[in-house]
Each structure stands twice: as C-alpha cells, then as structure tokens.
C-alpha cells in the first residue's frame, strides 16, 4: 500500500508507491513500503538532519522551517518558504564566529535584549531600551524618552518641540543664536515667530529685549532720532494723548499710512468715533450698490426680488407686475446700513440703489426695464407694462436664455 506523507500543518506533501524511493519532495530520501536497502537511506537522513545539511549551498527541495548550516560563513540559516533554492533567500539565524553577521526578518523580544554595541541602520521603535553604547546612523523613533542626564556637545536638528504649541518647555542657560537665513521669505532672519508672545518676567537685572537695531517688518531700520524726556514718554505712552497702554491699542494724535487692513476682505473690523472725510478726499469701493438690512420672513439668497410685507419686514415678491416691489437681495454691498440688525439669514441686505445681480427669467436686452415675474424673480417689461410703480430697475447686459438666471441691473427702490 502506498505511503501518503502529510506536512505538520495537515497539507499532503507526496505519495510514495510501494517499492520506490522519493528524492524530489524533500531534502531527504523517503523510501516506500518494501523498498530494498531502505536502511541505508534512513541512516543517511539521520546524519543529514544531525549536521543540519552542512554544506556550501542549501539542500535541494527544502521545506519551510528547515535548517541549513552554511560552511562558507559558519552561519545557521532557516528556509522561509517551500522550495527556496537560492541561498540569499534563506534567513540567517546565528554565526559561530564573533565577527559573523546574523540577519533576521521581523523579531519581537518580550524579555530583555543585551548587547555590547548596537548599530542601527534604519530605526528603533520601543518603549524602553538600555544599552552601553548605541550608534544610530538613521533614525530613532521612541514612544517615550526619559533622559536623566544628557550631555550633547553638538546637536544638529531642524526641529525641537514639546509635541504641541500649548505644551510648556524650558530652556536653561545662556544661549547665543547665530542665524542669517531666510524664514517666511524674510532674509537674514535669526528667529521668526509665527504666533504667540514673548513675555519677559523676573527681578533684578532683567532688561527685556536688548538689541542693536530695531527694524520694521519690511526690513527697514526704525529711526528714533530726536530729543526725548520723561514727560514725552509719559504723554505718548500713558498720558492724556494715549487712550491705552500696551495691553490695548496705542492711539497717537495722527496716523499716516497707505493701508489699514484686518488681514483679509472677509475678516470683520471696526472703526469707532465720529469721522469726517476731509476736503478733496473720497472713499472708493469695489462694488456698486447701497444696501440696508431688513428682517425677512424666510431665508432669501442673493438676487431675490423682495417686497415689503409678509410676517416680517420683507418677503419675496409674489405677483407679476407687482407694484409692491421694494428691492433686491445683495451680497456685494459697497456700503451696508443697519449692519448690526442681524445676519444674512435673518436680516439680508436689500440693495436700495446701485448695480446688482437680479434673478430673472426670459430673454432680456440691455436697457430693458425689469418688472416682477412673481416668485421672487424679475423679467423684462413688455410694451406698455412699465410704470413708475412696478419697475425695479434696468438691465445693464443681455440675457440670452429663457430659463431662470441672473442679469446685472441698476436698481432703485420704488416709492
């Protein structure tokens, strides 16, 4: 009866017919039933296993997990997969010589690992590692590093961090900063702060920030030429000409500048006081409509034609040729009145006069008078339809489609 050989994991390896010997399935000679001279092969198999197939090349037909002793390097290897015939694919386990090399794939050590010297060419990832000497040629990634005493003569790094902008850290000692590079496009910068404050606190000879040169943000030097006395300092910093100290804004008697900005067009700012535009001066705006906030009975988006009425102050226009039309919802107001009444959801800006995009249906020619089409939209007035009470404005461009869209128009609130 033929022998069926099964691997440790339950997978059938081969079937050996009676009176034959198998030398191709493994590195051993596997005799079948009643094979003459089987004893010699069995004894040879034992010897090969005892010596771990000691040779200059790996054994033929290896199985995963099989050991091979490489007599060239005096190193023990293990076969990673069935049939690995190339010596380079076997994994080195240990070497008998002190200078030999042992190569592993992934190794997990749950106990202690002791070494005289460790050379790491990629990275160390661990909770705790204790070594006498460690030479790291690439990176050391450590989840938690507690250094009792660390003396580093020279540290070359691009980042020193406490892990977040809100985690406190401490630098102790007398430090000299030598930096002449470019930070955030500012050349010759030794230190550049993106956010936060520099706070100097202490007693005794604490001078604050001491510098040989004060400079504006553009790199130009600040000039303090002139004569100052204590009264001048008091007057402009804490006296009657100053409304607040450094905790707030310092208000001088006059400011000459070409730009006052909140940083972005969408960032709100505030001017408080009674201001007068001087002679021959003017204010210029990007957009061209004058708007005021009114309370609406629903949310209306830009371009909606509205009328006075509804549950609140305004509602969308309801009927064709309505004489109750009042204005158009705007999101491009050059000047917004009643701005603190609410937001665009509850109190949308209504363009009282000026050019604004208007929701409209039908074909419209430049210059056409616009009247209500109902449902919050406008249309071009037909001959004889336009009156002083139902016209919302006049188109400033052509609209070439009959579907609902928008058209730029000059609008005026009806009386």
Topology diagram in text:
Elements (H helix, E strand, L loop, with lengths): L2 E4 L5 E5 L4 E2 L7 E2 L6 H13 L16 E4 L4 E4 L12 E5 L21 E4 L2 E4 L6 E4 L2 E4 L38 E3 L2 E4 L40 H8 L51 E5 L11 E4 L5 E3 L8 E5 L3 E5 L11 E12 L8 E6 L2 E4 L12 E3 L9 E8 L3
Parallel strand pairs: 8-10, 9-11, 14-18
Antiparallel strand pairs: 1-2, 3-4, 5-6, 6-7, 12-13, 14-19, 15-16, 15-17, 17-19, 19-23, 20-21, 20-22, 22-23
Instruction: Let me know the largest β-sheet.
Output: 10 strands, mixed
Shape: elongated
Mean pLDDT: 82
Helix content: under 10%
Strand content: 25-35%
Radius of gyration, in angstroms, nearest whole number: 44 Å
* Protein structure class: mainly beta
Please give the count of helices: 2
What is the chain-wise order of helices and strands? EEEEHEEEEEEEEEHEEEEEEEEEE
Number of distinct beta strands: 23
Low-confidence sequence ranges: 242-250
Distance linking N and C termini: 113 Å
């Amino acid at each position: 009866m033929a022998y069926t050989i099964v691997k440790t994991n339950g997978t059938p390896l081969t079937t050996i017919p009676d009176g034959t010997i198998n030398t191709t399935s493994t590195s051993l000679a596997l005799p079948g039933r009643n094979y003459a001279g089987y004893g010699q092969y069995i004894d040879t198999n034992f010897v090969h296993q005892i010596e771990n197939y000691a040779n200059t090349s790996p054994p033929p037909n290896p199985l995963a997990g099989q050991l091979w002793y490489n007599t060239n390097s005096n190193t023990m290897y293990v076969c990673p997969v069935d049939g690995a015939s190339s010596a380079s694919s076997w994994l080195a386990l240990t070497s008998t010589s002190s200078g030999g090399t042992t190569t592993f794939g992934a190794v997990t050590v749950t106990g202690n690992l002791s070494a005289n010297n460790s050379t790491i060419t990629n990275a160390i990832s661990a909770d705790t590692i204790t070594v006498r000497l460690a030479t790291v040629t690439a990176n050391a990634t450590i989840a938690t590093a507690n250094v009792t005493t660390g003396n580093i003569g020279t540290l070359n790094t691009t980042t020193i961090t406490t892990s977040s902008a809100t985690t406190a850290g401490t630098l102790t000692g007398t430090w000299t900063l030598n930096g002449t590079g470019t930070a955030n496009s500012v050349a010759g910068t030794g230190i550049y702060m993106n956010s936060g404050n520099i706070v100097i606190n202490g007693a005794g000879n604490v001078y604050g920030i001491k510098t040989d040169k004060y400079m504006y943000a553009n790199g130009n030097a600040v000039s303090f030429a002139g004569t100052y006395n204590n009264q001048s300092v008091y007057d402009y910093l804490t006296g009657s000409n100053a409304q607040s100290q450094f905790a707030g804004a310092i208000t001088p008697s006059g400011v000459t500048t070409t730009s006052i900005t909140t940083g972005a067009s969408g960032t709100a700012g505030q001017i408080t006081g009674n201001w007068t535009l001087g002679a021959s001066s003017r204010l210029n705006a990007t957009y061209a409509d004058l708007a005021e906030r009114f309370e609406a009975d629903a949310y209306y988006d830009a371009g909606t034609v509205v009328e006075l009425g509804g549950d609140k102050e305004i509602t969308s226009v309801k009927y064709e040729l309505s004489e109750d039309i009042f204005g158009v919802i705007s999101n491009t107001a050059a000047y917004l009145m009643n701005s603190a009444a609410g937001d665009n959801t509850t109190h949308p800006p209504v363009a009282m006069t000026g050019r604004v995009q208007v929701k409209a249906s039908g074909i419209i020619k430049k210059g056409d008078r616009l009247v209500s089409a109902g449902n919050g939209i406008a249309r071009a007035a037909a001959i004889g339809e336009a009156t002083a009470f139902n016209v919302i404005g006049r188109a400033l461009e052509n609209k070439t489609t009959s579907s609902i869209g928008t058209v730029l128009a000059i609008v005026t609130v009806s009386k």
